[in-house]
Recover the amino acids of this structure.
């Protein structure tokens, strides 16, 4: 397999592009995930574990809507823009119509969500979160939804154009601004400052990525041209299942965080789990970065079945090797890594061990998900995500009494079972 892959890549005119994209994608991910990691360490050390648990619950609540909308439209941008770059008959894809459809749809749905969340904020704070004192912070945090969904569309455009260097540059700029903003606001205003900094970060991103994307040929004209109409067929075929797929998992994750927060010492347990999960996100960043760089190239080989199969399997093997190597550190030294967040977090070491193993399966599933997107099986992605969400909820109900460790076990169980099912499906489709 490795020999076939090397032969395929060596003879490919896209070798230079693949290597360059992978490097810049990894560097961008280092900036993005590293920034998130450092920011949360700063917040955790400036406020106690109880408040950090409340911050984690607020953040997971609003990110439900970012993950369901923004990433779905961003994926659509990447897929169709990259296909437009590689296909011979470019008349088959109206790329301007696709860009306008995704941006307008994302902005429209984000505004609707913002209105719904604002109108229901009292209910959320009092009845769901059971924390009336978080009402004003919840109202502030929903601005994040408004900004971040559109940001994901802009990032999708840059990925489709294979402008990973641009993503790195703007990740660096916004990351530095974010570190200063979080440090100052959290130091002076505690939890309130941390939430305001989160919203400001999404605004920084929106501004910088808009500047980058606006330099694209005819971008502004595309958005304002009334002759370019919204493509509802695209929404039905690709965006709708992608959105529903995104809606499947985040609510389950949010429900689990909420359930954990309501156990004995719940917010402290949630703080431990969230710290471990942040390290989990660092573990998977290299595999996901390479997966992002490879995704546009799937379109190049999709019409050549045997090479497509070789390319797919070899990259799956590559991701497995990378994820396994990176996971070894948290498996062996979990308490040391958790201590970065403060002495209160060392007790969450066992939780990190289970998440480190889960990270291997999660990394592999990113490749399988992009495989389905390439072959236009977005409705299957929806089915798999719903299956995973169901597994996660059921597993968490069984394990939640064990606190943060139990929730980590639930994640490992759900990821492992989904990988077995989805890998079997992918192998059948690729034959």
């Amino acid at each position: 397999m490795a020999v076939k892959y090397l032969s395929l890549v060596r003879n490919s005119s896209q070798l230079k592009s693949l290597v360059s994209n992978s490097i810049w994608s990894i560097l961008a991910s280092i900036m993005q995930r590293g920034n998130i990691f450092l920011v949360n360490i700063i917040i955790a050390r400036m406020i106690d574990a109880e408040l950090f648990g409340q911050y984690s619950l607020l953040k997971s609540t609003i990110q439900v809507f970012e993950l369901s909308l923004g990433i779905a439209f961003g994926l659509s941008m990447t897929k169709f823009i990259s296909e437009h770059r590689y296909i011979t008959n470019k008349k088959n894809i109206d790329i301007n119509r696709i860009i306008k459809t995704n941006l307008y749809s994302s902005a429209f749905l984000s505004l609707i969500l913002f209105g719904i969340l604002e109108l229901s904020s009292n209910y959320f704070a009092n009845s769901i979160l059971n924390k009336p004192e978080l009402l004003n912070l919840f109202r502030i945090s929903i601005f994040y939804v408004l900004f971040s969904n559109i940001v994901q569309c802009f990032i999708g455009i840059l990925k489709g154009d294979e402008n990973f260097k641009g993503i790195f540059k703007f990740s660096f700029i916004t990351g530095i601004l974010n570190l200063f903003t979080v440090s100052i606001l959290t130091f002076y205003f505690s939890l309130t400052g941390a939430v305001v900094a989160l919203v400001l970060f999404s605004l920084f991103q929106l501004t910088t990525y808009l500047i980058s994307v606006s330099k694209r040929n005819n971008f502004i004209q595309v958005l304002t041209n009334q002759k370019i109409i919204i493509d509802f067929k695209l929404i039905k075929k690709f965006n709708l299942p992608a959105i529903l797929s995104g809606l499947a998992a985040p609510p389950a994750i949010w429900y689990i965080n909420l359930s954990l927060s309501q156990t004995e010492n719940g917010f402290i347990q949630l703080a431990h789990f969230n710290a471990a999960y942040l390290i989990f996100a660092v573990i998977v960043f290299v595999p996901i970065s390479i997966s992002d760089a490879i995704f546009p190239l799937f379109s190049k080989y999709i019409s050549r079945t045997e090479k497509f199969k070789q390319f797919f399997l070899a990259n799956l093997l590559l991701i497995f090797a990378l994820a396994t190597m990176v996971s070894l550190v948290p498996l062996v030294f979990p308490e040391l890594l958790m201590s970065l967040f403060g002495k209160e977090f060392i007790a969450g070491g066992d939780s990190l061990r289970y998440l480190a193993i889960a990270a291997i399966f999660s990394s592999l599933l990113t490749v399988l998900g992009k495989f389905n997107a390439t072959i236009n099986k977005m409705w299957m992605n929806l089915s798999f995500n719903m299956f995973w969400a169901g597994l996660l909820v059921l597993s968490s109900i069984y394990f939640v009494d064990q606190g943060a460790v139990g929730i980590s076990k639930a994640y490992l169980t759900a990821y492992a079972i989904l990988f077995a099912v989805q890998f079997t499906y992918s192998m059948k489709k690729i034959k």
Summary: Residues 2-430 form one domain. The two ends are 16 Å apart (CA to CA).
